[in-house]
Amino acid sequence: MQITPLHRCVLSALTACTLAMHPLALCAEETPDPFQAAVQAAKAQDFAQAADLFEALAQAGDHDAQFNFAVLLKSGKGRPQHFAQALEWALLAQLGGVTRASTLSADLIEIVQAPALREIESRIQERMQGRLARGDRDAVMQYVQLTREVLQKPDLEEAYLWTLLGSALGLPEAAAERDDIADELDIKTIAKVQDAARDLFVEEKMAERFAVPPADS
Q1: What does the pLDDT look like over 9-27, one tens digit per residue?
Q2: pLDDT tens digits along 145-169
Q3: How many other CB atoms are found less than 10 A from the CB of residue 80?
């Protein structure tokens, strides 16, 4: 199968750009790094092994691995080509801040059917809500991005709610995002969501749930 220039670029990036995001992979040889092992498998064109390793890392929340696994799924290397599955991992990588994932997601959205896209969005929402329930601070602004920008039918009220909570928790960029979203809402909706955020913050003990872990001494 002919590999498009985009795929060629992305697959070569597995051994350069993406690996650079994992400096620990360059540590002592006696401590094998699974991401580095996946990269080496891709370099050796053992795409089945690369897919296995990247999938395990992707399931554990490694956003770079999510992107790389999406690339392999889109190109049909190491796993049968599957556009819907590739899109799901690409969207998760996009939410995790992998810049190149946005282009990959946009390409895949054009070829994934609407029912499958709705199922993907539902699974991603469920995954993100699970992280929020566990007090994952990184998930807050990712969830805002999901509900504001990624869903085919954005939920601005939900996005605004979590920017209110995120700002109260001291998360970077939450306040600016909160104010941007407020400009798109009417004053009645703003008041309603602010009441909901106030109650949720207290009732769900958000400050405690999302407390910053103490630094190692």
Answers
A1: 345 445 444 433 454 454 4
A2: 999 999 999 999 999 999 999 999 9
A3: 8
Q: Are residues 124 and 35 in the same domain?
A: no
pLDDT at position 14 is 52
Tokens of 212: 């910053």
CB 21 within 8 A of CB 4: no
Domain coverage including residue 201:
113-209
Record the tokens describing residue 196, joined without a space.
């909901």
DSSP structure class, residue 149: I
DSSP state of 64: H
Do 5 and 36 sit in the same domain of this protein? yes
Instruction: Decide if 214 is inside a domain.
Output: no
Backbone angles phi, psi at 31, to 5 degrees: -115, 90
pTM of the model: 0.85
Residue 52 and residue 65: Cα distance in Å, rounded?
11
Q: Are residues 143 and 162 in contact, defined by beta-carbon separation less than 8 angstroms?
A: yes
CATH number, domain with residue 42? 1.25.40.10
